[in-house]
C-alpha cells in the first residue's frame, strides 16, 4: 500500500543535509548476548517533561510518562527479558547510520538492507507555543531506495508492582491503559497491525521511494486525552525541529567547538523540567557505575550541585531564560527550609530508596527509586549556590530582595558549619573533613563578600564572612596539603587523592603552584588513558568519571597549560565519539563502554565549560 504521506517541500533535511556526522553500525552484534544494548548506542529525545531512549536498532527501551521521574512505560533498559519496549526495525539484516539533525533534538536513522534504504525520524513533539499539554512521541519512516519492510512491535512491561496494561477501543482509537497512564497508539493507513492483545502491539509496514509511514504514541496521566490526527503529529516533527533550531540560534559559543557545545547544550535542555524549572541530574535510574556492581542510583532528581553547575553553563552560552528559571527554582527551595542536597523535580523532599524487582542493566542490581542523598548534608551546596549567584550577577543581572536575604542567611549558615564534617561532593557514607568541602565553604564566603561589596546582598555580616573565609584557607593549608605527596589530599590524615579538586582552580582558590602540583598528582594516580577516576582506589568498583576529565582540562587551561589541555580534550572527545553525542556519567577506559546514568548533566556541562575555556571565552 502506498503511504498517503509523501515527502514535500518544506519537510526537514535528509540525513546529510546539514546534519551532524553519522555513526555507522551493523545489526550483527549490536546488542549484547544478554539482550541489552550498549548505552553509547542510545539517542535521547525530550519535550521538557520526559525523555525517550531510542536505540540504534530502532527500539525504544526507556520512557517514563508523563515525567522523567514517573514509573517507566517502557523499561527494557533495566529488564531485557520482560521489560517493555517500542521497536520499529527492518525485518531483515541491516546496517544503520544515525545522527541528530543539526542544532536539534530530532534524531534521524538510516537503515540499509539488501532490498533498500529507509530513514527513521523521531521526535518528542512540541507545538508553536512550546511544550504540548500531552506527551507526543512521533516516529516517521521515509523510503529512500528500493523497499524496506519494518516490523512494528510494542510491549509493555508486566512488573509485579504495577497494574497489568490492557487495550480498549474508544472513538475508533486504539487506547491503552497502563496504571495511571492513558495513551493512544496512532498510525498511518499503511501500517498493518495484527489483532490487539493486552500488553502488546505487533504489525508491519513497508516503504519505498517517496513513501512515508508514521506511528506515534499520545499519552497523559489521569487526565482526558486528545487524539490528534496522524497528519498533525507528522507535521509537528518538523515544527519541533524548527523550534529546536530557533533555540540554538540564540546561543553563543566559539566556532571551533560549536557542534560539540550545541550538542551538549541540547542534552542539558532535555534535563530542564519545564513545569518547575528544576534540572534533573540525569533521566534514568540504576544504570550501573560498574557492570555487575551495586552502585546503581536514581538520578531523576534535582541536585543543588548539578543544577548550579548547569545554570553556569547555560549562562556561559547565553541560555538566559533557562538559567533564570533554574536559578529561581533553586533559590525558592533554599528559602523555604533548611538547604537540602537534592529535591524532587516538583520541589519536594526526595523519597527514601525503594528496591524494584527487576534484573537491572546487564544484571546489575538492585534497581532503585528514591535516593539516600536527600538526607545528607554536603558543604558543597554553599559554594554551588554562591558561585551560581556570582555568575548570574556577573552577566549583568540583579538579585531581588527575597533572594538576597536567602543568600545572606546561607552565608551565615556556612560560616557556622564549615568546621563540621560532611558527606562530601561524592556523597560518601562516612562523614569527614573532605578537602573539597572546605574549599566549597571558602568559595561560598568569598563570593558572598564579593556580592555584598557589589550591593547585591545585605552587608550586615560581611566582615564576619571575610574572617571565616580566611580561617578556612588557613585550615586547608595547614591540614589538607601534603608536601610528601605534592598534592592536596582527599581529607586530612589520608593518603588519597580526589579528582574533583581540579574545580578549585575555577573557584579561584589561592595557591596556584599547589593546585598545579595537585593536578599533576591526579593525572599520575587517577588518570587512565584519556580519563580519570573520581578518587583513590575507586577503580575497583566503577569506571572513569567523565566530568572529572573535563574539570582537569579546564583547570589546566586556566593555569596557562593550554597545549596540555587541548591535547587532553582531543583525546577524550576521540574516545567518546562512538555514539550520537549523548554522554553518560562514566566510561570504561579500556573498552569505551558508557557506564552510569544518562544523559548525565555533569558530563555535558563540564564539556561546555572546558570547550569555552579552551577558546578563551569569558568565565
From TrEMBL:
<dbReference type="InterPro" id="IPR045582">
    <property type="entry name" value="Trehalase-like_N"/>
</dbReference>
<feature type="compositionally biased region" description="Basic and acidic residues">
    <location>
        <begin position="1"/>
        <end position="10"/>
    </location>
</feature>
<dbReference type="Pfam" id="PF19291">
    <property type="entry name" value="TREH_N"/>
</dbReference>
<dbReference type="InterPro" id="IPR008928">
    <property type="entry name" value="6-hairpin_glycosidase_sf"/>
</dbReference>
<feature type="domain" description="GH15-like">
    <location>
        <begin position="258"/>
        <end position="611"/>
    </location>
</feature>
<dbReference type="GO" id="GO:0004553">
    <property type="term" value="F:hydrolase activity, hydrolyzing O-glycosyl compounds"/>
</dbReference>
<feature type="region of interest" description="Disordered">
    <location>
        <begin position="1"/>
        <end position="21"/>
    </location>
</feature>
<keyword id="KW-0378">Hydrolase</keyword>
<dbReference type="GO" id="GO:0005975">
    <property type="term" value="P:carbohydrate metabolic process"/>
</dbReference>
<feature type="domain" description="Trehalase-like N-terminal">
    <location>
        <begin position="37"/>
        <end position="112"/>
    </location>
</feature>
<dbReference type="InterPro" id="IPR011613">
    <property type="entry name" value="GH15-like"/>
</dbReference>
<dbReference type="Pfam" id="PF00723">
    <property type="entry name" value="Glyco_hydro_15"/>
</dbReference>
<protein>
    <submittedName>
        <fullName>Glucoamylase (Glucan-1,4-alpha-glucosidase), GH15 family</fullName>
    </submittedName>
</protein>
<dbReference type="InterPro" id="IPR012341">
    <property type="entry name" value="6hp_glycosidase-like_sf"/>
</dbReference>
Amino acid at each position: 500500500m502506498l503511504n498517503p504521506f509523501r515527502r514535500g517541500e518544506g519537510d526537514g533535511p535528509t540525513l546529510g543535509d546539514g546534519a551532524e556526522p553519522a555513526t555507522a553500525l551493523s545489526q550483527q552484534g549490536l546488542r549484547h548476548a544478554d539482550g541489552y544494548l550498549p548505552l553509547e548506542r542510545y539517542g535521547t529525545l525530550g519535550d521538557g517533561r520526559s525523555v525517550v531512549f531510542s536505540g540504534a536498532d530502532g527500539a525504544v527501551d526507556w520512557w517514563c510518562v508523563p515525567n522523567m521521574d514517573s514509573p517507566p512505560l517502557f523499561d527494557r533498559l533495566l529488564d531485557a527479558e520482560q521489560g517493555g519496549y517500542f521497536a520499529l526495525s527492518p525485518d531483515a539484516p541491516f546496517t544503520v547510520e544515525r545522527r541528530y539533525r543539526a542544532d536539534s533534538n530530532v534524531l534521524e536513522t538510516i537503515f540499509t538492507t539488501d532490498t533498500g534504504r529507509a530513514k527513521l525520524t523521531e521526535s518528542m513533539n512540541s507545538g508553536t507555543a512550546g511544550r504540548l499539554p500531552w506527551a507526543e512521541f512521533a516516529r516517521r519512516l521515509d523510503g529512500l531506495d528500493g523497499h524496506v519492510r519494518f516490523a512494528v512491535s510494542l510491549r509493555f512491561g508486566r512488573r509485579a508492582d504495577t497494574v497489568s496494561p490492557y487495550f480498549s477501543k474508544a472513538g475508533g482509537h486504539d487506547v491503552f491503559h497502563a496504571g495511571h497512564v492513558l495513551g493512544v497508539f496512532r498510525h498511518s493507513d499503511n501500517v498493518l497491525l495484527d489483532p490487539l492483545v493486552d500488553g502488546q502491539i505487533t504489525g508491519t509496514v513497508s516503504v519505498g521511494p517517496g513513501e512515508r509511514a508514521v506511528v506515534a504514541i499520545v499519552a497523559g496521566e489521569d487526565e482526558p486525552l486528545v487524539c490528534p490526527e496522524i497528519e498533525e503529529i507528522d507535521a509537528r516533527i518538523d515544527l519541533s525541529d524548527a523550534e529546536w533550531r530557533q533555540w540554538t540560534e540564540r546561543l553563543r559559543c566559539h566556532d571551533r567547538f560549536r557542534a560539540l557545545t550545541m550538542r551538549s547544550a541540547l542534552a542539558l535542555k532535555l534535563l530542564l523540567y519545564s513545569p518547575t524549572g528544576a534540572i534533573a541530574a540525569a533521566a534514568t535510574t540504576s544504570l550501573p557505575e560498574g557492570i555487575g556492581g551495586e552502585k546503581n542510583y536514581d538520578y531523576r532528581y534535582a541536585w543543588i550541585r548539578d543544577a548550579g553547575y548547569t545554570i553556569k553553563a547555560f549562562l556561559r552560552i547565553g541560555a538566559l531564560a533557562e538559567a533564570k528559571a533554574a536559578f529561581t527554582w533553586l533559590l525558592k527551595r533554599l528559602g523555604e527550609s533548611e538547604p537540602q542536597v537534592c529535591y524532587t523535580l516538583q520541589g519536594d523532599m526526595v523519597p527514601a530508596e525503594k528496591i524494584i524487582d527487576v534484573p537491572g542493566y546487564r544484571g546489575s542490581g538492585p534497581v532503585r527509586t528514591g535516593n539516600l542523598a536527600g538526607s545528607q548534608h554536603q558543604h558543597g551546596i554553599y559554594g554551588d549556590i554562591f558561585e551560581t549567584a556570582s555568575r548570574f550577577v556577573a552577566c549583568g543581572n540583579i538579585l531581588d530582595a527575597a533572594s538576597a536575604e536567602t543568600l545572606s542567611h546561607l552565608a551565615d549558615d556556612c560560616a557556622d558549619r564549615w568546621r563540621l564534617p560532611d558527606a562530601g561532593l561524592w556523597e560518601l557514607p562516612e562523614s569527614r573533613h573532605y578537602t573539597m568541602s572546605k574549599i566549597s565553604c571558602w568559595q561560598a564566603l568569598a563570593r558572598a563578600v564579593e556580592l555584598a561589596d557589589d550591593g547585591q546582598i545585605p552587608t550586615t555580616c560581611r566582615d564576619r564572612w571575610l574572617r571565616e573565609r580566611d580561617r578556612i584557607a588557613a585550615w586547608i593549608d595547614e591540614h589538607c596539603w601534603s608536601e610528601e605527596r605534592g598534592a592536596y589530599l582527599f581529607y586530612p590524615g589520608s593518603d588519597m587523592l580526589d579528582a574533583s579538586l581540579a574545580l578549585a582552580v575555577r573557584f579561584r582558590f589561592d595557591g596556584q603552584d599547589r593546585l598545579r602540583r595537585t593536578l599533576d598528582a591526579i593525572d599520575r594516580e587517577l588518570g587512565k588513558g584519556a580519563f580519570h577516576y573520581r578518587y583513590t582506589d575507586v577503580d575497583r568498583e566503577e569506571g572513569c568519571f567523565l566530568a572529572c576529565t573535563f574539570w582537569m582540562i579546564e583547570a589546566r587551561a586556566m593555569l596557562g597549560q593550554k597545549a596540555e589541555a587541548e591535547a587532553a580534550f582531543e583525546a577524550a572527545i576521540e574516545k567518546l565519539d562512538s555514539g550520537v553525542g549523548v554522554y553518560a556519567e562514566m566510561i570504561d577506559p579500556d573498552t569505551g563502554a558508557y557506564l552510569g546514568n544518562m544523559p548525565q548533566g555533569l558530563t555535558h556541562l563540564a564539556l561546555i565549560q572546558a570547550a569555552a575555556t579552551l577558546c578563551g571565552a569569558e568565565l
